[in-house]
Amino acid sequence: MNATSDTRRPLQVACPQCRKKVAWRDDNPFRPFCSERCRTLDLGAWADGSHRIAGEPAMDETEIDEMILRAERGDFSERE
Ligand SMILES: [Zn+2]
């Protein structure tokens, strides 16, 4: 009897950015995105205000990412 753990296929999700199928695995740091590029594109959309969750406090990690994105773009509109 073979008790392999390979009989279970990894859960597959569609990348929110490009809709490519991506395996949901612990070794994919970009999940649910397929790549760092797609994740960065989505973060950029958040920073631009394309996505907004009203009344939901942002996670510290997200705020830091936004600050970094703004700093890279030279956008310091928060000071206005
Ligand atoms: Zn993608």
TrEMBL record:
SUPFAM superfamilies: Glucocorticoid receptor-like (DNA-binding domain) (SSF57716)
UniProt keyword Heme, yes or no: no
A GO BP entry: regulation of DNA-templated transcription
Molecular-function GO term, any one: zinc ion binding
Cofactor section: Zn(2+)
One family name in Pfam for this protein: YacG
Residue sites binding Zn(2+) per the record: 15, 18, 34, 38
Function (record text): Inhibits all the catalytic activities of DNA gyrase by preventing its interaction with DNA. Acts by binding directly to the C-terminal domain of GyrB, which probably disrupts DNA binding by the gyrase.
Name of protein: DNA gyrase inhibitor YacG
UniProt source species: Halomonas urumqiensis
Gene name per UniProt: yacG
